[in-house]
Design brief:
The complex is a heterodimer of chains A (105) and B (162). Chain A is 42% helix and 26% strand. With 105 residues, chain A is of the alpha+beta class. Chain B has 162 residues and is an all-alpha fold. Helices cover 86% and strands 0% of the residues of chain B. In chain B, helix 1 (2-66) packs antiparallel against helix 2 (70-91) and helix 3 runs antiparallel to helix 4 (127-157). The longest helix of chain B has 65 residues, at 2-66. Chain B is rod-shaped. Classes of the chains: A alpha+beta (105), B mainly alpha (162).
């Protein structure tokens, strides 16, 4: 069951990622990214082979504390995944660099 | 002058005594500060040593991943996770900026490597999965190296070092 607090967490994380206040990193799993908070909690966001996305919060020992996926919040998790991917792979920076070079040429 | 000393020897002795006390206090404070700086430096050195070991192990992990020695990978992962946990527990107060978060992120990635290594005993990993596991390992190397760099910077700036 997804609570309002869970939704607020995903929404706040989306906002923080858009403002580049969160640093995302690729993991050893394809299409999965992670970040940490307070040195105690890890957030994992990933995409299954069927295209569905998942959002998980784990503690220091890797124990899953929260898992969000599927309806009714699937669209938020999808948006979060895309933003995390762009941040982890520095997509916007790459686009800026390419645009800069194109404008110079 | 001699008369003055004779008449005021008690006052002069008090002033001298006070001066000596102040001097002793200053010396004691400086000694305490020096001892604290030395302790901080010693703790930073231990932190750097442990992080250095973790950094070496996570780099070696890449070799075992390439050779697909999954049992060794599992052992190495446990050692790295142990080092990261120890660093946070013993020297958490010396971890500056994002270091604590970066160490946890490196642990999360390392744990992910262990999970995939365990899966590999049940099924053959795809080429893309093998590439990604190595990317993850490099990401963890970067993160731990960054934390080590911050700790070395703190050591260089430590008053005990100067």
């Amino acid at each position: 069951m997804t609570t309002d607090k869970d939704l607020e967490l995903v929404q706040q994380l989306i906002d923080a990622t858009k403002e580049a206040r969160v640093s995302w990193h690729p993991t050893a799993t394809l299409n999965q990214f992670t970040t940490s908070f307070k040195g105690r909690f890890g957030v994992l966001i990933g995409k299954y082979d069927n295209g569905d996305c998942y959002f998980r919060v784990v503690d220091e020992s890797g124990q899953e504390m929260l898992s969000i996926e599927g309806p009714p919040v699937g669209h938020l998790v999808d948006e979060m995944w895309e933003l995390a991917r762009r941040a982890a792979l520095n997509v916007d920076q790459a686009i800026d660099d390419i645009l800069q070079e194109l404008k110079r040429g | 002058m001699a008369d003055f000393v004779k008449q005021n020897w008690g006052n002069l002795a008090s002033v001298l005594g006070l001066s000596v006390s102040v001097w002793v206090l200053i010396v004691a404070r400086k000694a305490r500060e020096a001892a604290e700086d030395a302790r901080t430096l010693a703790r930073l050195k231990s932190l750097i040593e442990e992080l250095g070991e973790a950094s070496g192990k996570i780099q070696q992990l890449g070799i075992f991943l390439r050779e697909q020695k999954w049992d060794v990978v599992q052992l190495r992962v446990e050692e790295i996770l142990g080092s990261c946990k120890l660093v946070v527990a013993r020297w958490g107060d010396h971890l500056l900026g994002d270091s604590r978060n970066n160490l946890l992120t490196a642990s999360t990635i390392t744990r992910d490597i262990a999970r995939i290594a365990a899966e590999s005993s049940m099924r053959q990993l795809t080429e893309a999965e093998r590439r990604q596991i190595l990317k993850g390992q490099l990401e963890a190397v970067d993160l731990i190296s960054g934390v080590l760099g911050e700790a070395r910077k703190a050591e260089e700036r430590s008053p005990g070092k100067q």
